[in-house]
Amino acid sequence: MSGGARGETEYLEAYRASDWPRPSVAVDLVVFTVLDTDLKVLVIRRKVHPFKDAWALPGGFVRVGDGAADRGEDIFAAAQRELAEETGLDPATMYLEQLYTFGAPHRDPRMRVISVAHYALVRPTLAPLVTAGTDAAAVRWRSVAAEADEPLAFDHAEILAHALDRVRGKLDYAPIAFELVPETFTVAELRSVYEAIKGTTYDAGNFRRRFKRMQTDGVIVQAPGKRTTGTKPARVYRFAPEAVAGVSGDDA
Amino acid sequence: MSGGARGETEYLEAYRASDWPRPSVAVDLVVFTVLDTDLKVLVIRRKVHPFKDAWALPGGFVRVGDGAADRGEDIFAAAQRELAEETGLDPATMYLEQLYTFGAPHRDPRMRVISVAHYALVRPTLAPLVTAGTDAAAVRWRSVAAEADEPLAFDHAEILAHALDRVRGKLDYAPIAFELVPETFTVAELRSVYEAIKGTTYDAGNFRRRFKRMQTDGVIVQAPGKRTTGTKPARVYRFAPEAVAGVSGDDA
DNA sequence: AGAATAGTGTCTATCAGACACTATGCA
DNA sequence: TGCATAGTGTCTGATAGACACTATTCT
């Protein structure tokens, strides 16, 4: 900082801006997993008003410090914290990425809330371990396909639709499907994840060819052992993240 | 709303949230155009602290109303308003889309500011008409290739890098190049926009083939007249937005 | 032996990159 | 007439969809 006339200008500018009304800023989370070859999203039953007892996406307010010394937490850190709180899982084990920011003036009946939505991908092996956070009466993995289900609170249906678009689009050019299978997986298992996300079927032979290309590209390597599925056992593979650029999660 | 015990819970919840410190929320704009076959970004010279006299991306605070009656403006509306203020152009003539939200705790030295970055595309025919807004000492179209240029204020270099990634990626699957040519254009003109954005060259013959596919798909239609360029005149075409789904701009 | 899934190979259409070639208007 | 750009055509390699086929294991 500086003093004198510059300092005065600076002070006035800071005063002006901080004197205007400010919105609350939240993060909302669209947490996906694949269970029983079906794409699921994590919903919680709200304990408090508004939308008490309704299903909603997990989320919470970004911690903003008061003043110059404490500036609060980063937005991505807030999303990680909420993800941990609302699932009981270690956020380092999940893929997390910022999605879109929703800020319609009346999206929250209480007050002006701007929500930075994120989406997360949880391995099916971890999905059954989620536990309800303190602000939730219950958590549930809800099928994304279940349109006729109970409506979601706030504008969460719109946020979910956005997240679906993003994941479906990103599936074609980014290695995100690997976040939704166990550490080791078969060709058929990876295919079923693609099918669950896209909502279509993939030809088994053609998908295998694509799979093989990823193998020759070094994205996938064979893992020891086989998976027995009641019929001919299948080879298992492992994702090789070291061969892929930009797998860090949030790209900001 | 409701009364009684529910009302009390509701009140307490609202009180709690609104009593916490809140951040200022801004919109920043990455405004692109193509001039002289070069991709340019609009920068302003700051009039006030912090970063006084430095180049920065245009932007401003989102107007947030005070209380239940006035809730302020929508985020997209704020971006449109800033776009109009900072360019002097009608925002309806430009493509505008939300990009990413930046909220590192110390990205603004004054206070906690969360910025919802957007990017805009301006036709080269309109680009020379931009005028500086009230908070800018000057505006300039700056080449994005000019790495060795003066640094940008705040985290605006990072925002610009994000916007470049988005535009370059989206160019391949969305009809955004049409936002950067005049109403009617030749094959070569559209190709030079692709080249300016991607920073590479395209084979003229192959690009023409791609162009023709868009024509048979109804995305492009021939327009009357020819463009004379000092040599053999070229046919001119027009974008046919009615044939393309999802050209609305912001997709929220 | 039969069912079911794992795994392979082929044909075809589409599209991109490389590149040779023709057509036309202006200096 | 020559040059520069407009515009056309061809060859090749990579990939996706459709689909027929073989291989292996469990019951």
CATH topology of the largest domain in chain A: Nucleoside Triphosphate Pyrophosphohydrolase
How is the quaternary structure best described? homodimer
As residue ranges, the low-confidence spans of chain A are 1-5
CATH superfamily of the largest domain in chain A: Nucleoside Triphosphate Pyrophosphohydrolase
Counted beta strands of chain A:
10
Give the number of helices of chain A. 5
What average pLDDT do the residues of chain A reach? 90
Largest sheet of chain A: 7 strands, mixed
> Helix-strand pattern of chain A, N to C?
HEEEEHEEEHEHHEE
Distance between the termini of chain A: 27 Å
Fraction in beta strands of chain A: 25-35%
CATH C-level class of the largest domain in chain A: Alpha Beta
Helix content of chain A: 25-40%
CATH structural architecture of the largest domain in chain A:
Alpha-Beta Complex
Give a structural overview.
The structure is a homodimer of 252-residue chains. Chain A is elongated, with a radius of gyration of 22 Å. Chain A has 2 domains: 1-170, Alpha-Beta Complex (Nucleoside Triphosphate Pyrophosphohydrolase), CATH 3.90.79; 171-252, Winged helix-like DNA-binding domain superfamily/Winged helix DNA-binding domain (Arc Repressor Mutant, subunit A), CATH 1.10.10.10. Helices cover 27% and strands 27% of the residues of chain A. Chain A has 252 residues and is an alpha+beta fold. In chain A, the strands form 2 sheets. In chain A, strands 1, 2, 3, 4, 5, 6 and 7 form a 7-stranded mixed sheet that branches. Chain A has a 3-stranded antiparallel sheet with strand order 8-10-9. Chains A and B meet through helix 1 and strand 5 of A and helix 1 and strand 5 of B. Chain A binds a DNA duplex (27 and 27 nucleotides) through residues 186-188, 203-206, 208-210, 213, 228-235.
